[in-house]
Amino acid sequence: MSDKELDLPVPDPGLEEHPPRFTDVDPAAADRSYRQIVAMLAAVPVLVIAFLVVYFAVPRDAELILFGSTFKMQTTLLGLTAGFATLLIGIAAIAWARSLMSDEEIVGERHGAASPPEARERVLADLEIGIDASAIRRRKLLGTGMAGALGMMLLPAVVSLADLGPWPTAEERAKTIEKTIWAEGVRLVTDVTNVPLKATDLVVGQLVNAQPENLEHLEDSAEYQIAKAKASIIVVRMDPNSIKIPESRRDWQVDGILCYSKICTHVGCPISLWEQQTHHLLCPCHQSTFDLGNSGVVVFGPAARSLPQLPITTDAQGYLVARGDFTVPVGPSFFERDSLKDFQEGDR
Questions:
Q1: Listing from the earlier edge strand, what are the strands of the sheet with 289-291?
Q2: How far apart are CA 251 and CA 203, in angstroms?
Q3: How far apart (Å, rounded) are the C-alpha atoms in residues 230 and 223?
Q4: Is the pLDDT of residue 345 over 80?
Q5: Which of 100, 94, 101 is nearest to 34 (CA)?
Q6: Domain ranges in the chain?
Q7: Above 70 in pLDDT, residue 208?
């Protein structure tokens, strides 16, 4: 036994005898397998086109009855076309590897982690051998078919992105995320209990979590949650002599009572941590701090926009009501919004 064999933990078993595949000894079988693989890859674009036709042509409410069960026709056909296209690519890849690629075992000696200087040349040489072993140069439709099939499979994914929601055009944003249910004359009521807020009932230093009175009239739970997420507010009363009220917002408050959105302009956390002495409102998520005594401007933290202020007044009974909706979108910032309308320190 040699010294090298003594260093091995187990004896080297060597390579077993290599049995040839049917496609290795029968050219007709190899050609038949080649045609089958190309046919499967060629069917993928057809299925992708069928997917697109179904997506755009089949109504979403159309139904399909199979084996006594009712299915949504569009969803079923989309699943079948995309599923079979993916399946064919997988079967073609496996058949390609099992019947046409090189089927020879190779033994390589273990080496250290560091590559020798000639490693790059050897990698390129091995890559060249692998390309030759794949038979892609002799049977050129294999590479073209696989590339085309994989490329076509991107189309269903791209088209399906349209189902993530409506396109965020300026008109669509104005009707949805930039609009709340606040309107002229809507009363401010306490959150949960829905008690209308009277100006004379609030004392200096008090903060009240509130919402619009018309929120409770929404019956649909999803619509209710969406509306509440955008329309929730906080109402604070401060000494008018201790706060800054710009000329443009003189009629937005009632004797030091101001109303702001409850949603942080950073990432949308609800905020109500109130410091009476400094008039600061602190967001618990990332410590953005807003000065409610100065039109809600940011004094600390990652928020880049002032807290939106809701214009309010009182009705004939002395209850607090809104003058209209927010003048700027509430909630976290998004890349399409026009931030030039937001209130900044020094604005009049």
A1: 273-275, 280-282, 289-291, 297-300
A2: 20
A3: 11
A4: no
A5: 100
A6: 16-106+117-164, 170-341
A7: yes
Residue 196 DSSP one-character state: B
pLDDT on residue 47: 95
Residue 74's CB is within 10 A of a number of other CB atoms, namely: 19
Residue 345, φ and ψ in degrees, nearest 5: -55, 130
Half-sphere exposure of 278 (CA within 13 A, CB side): 10
Structure tokens given for 16: 């077993």
DSSP secondary-structure letter at 295?
A: T
The DSSP output letter for 55 is H
Tokens of 121: 């040349």
Calpha distance 28→23 (Å, rounded): 8
Place of tokens 């020094």: 346
Alpha-carbon dihedral angle through residues 201, 224, 307, 268, given to the nearest 10 degrees? 130
Phi then psi for residue 98, to 5 deg, are -80, -25
CATH node for 170-341: 2.102.10.10
The per-residue pLDDT for range 120-136, each reduced to its tens digit, is: 888 888 888 888 888 87
Alpha-carbon span 212 to 214, nearest angstrom: 5
* CB-side neighbour CA atoms (13 Å) of 228: 20
Read off the pLDDT of residues 142-178 as tens digits, 9 standing for 90 and up.
Answer: 888 888 888 888 888 888 887 777 777 888 888 888 8
Closest CA to 99 of 28, 15, 17, 16: 28
167-177 residues labelled b (16+ CB within 10 A) or e (exposed) = eeeeeebeeeb
Q: Record the tokens describing residue 17, joined without a space.
A: 């005898």
pLDDT beyond 80 at 9:
no
Per-residue pLDDT reduced to its tens digit, 28-75: 999 999 999 999 999 999 999 999 999 999 998 888 887 878 888 999
List, as one string, the DSSP characters of 227-253.
Answer: HHHHH-EEEEE--GGGS---GGGGGGS
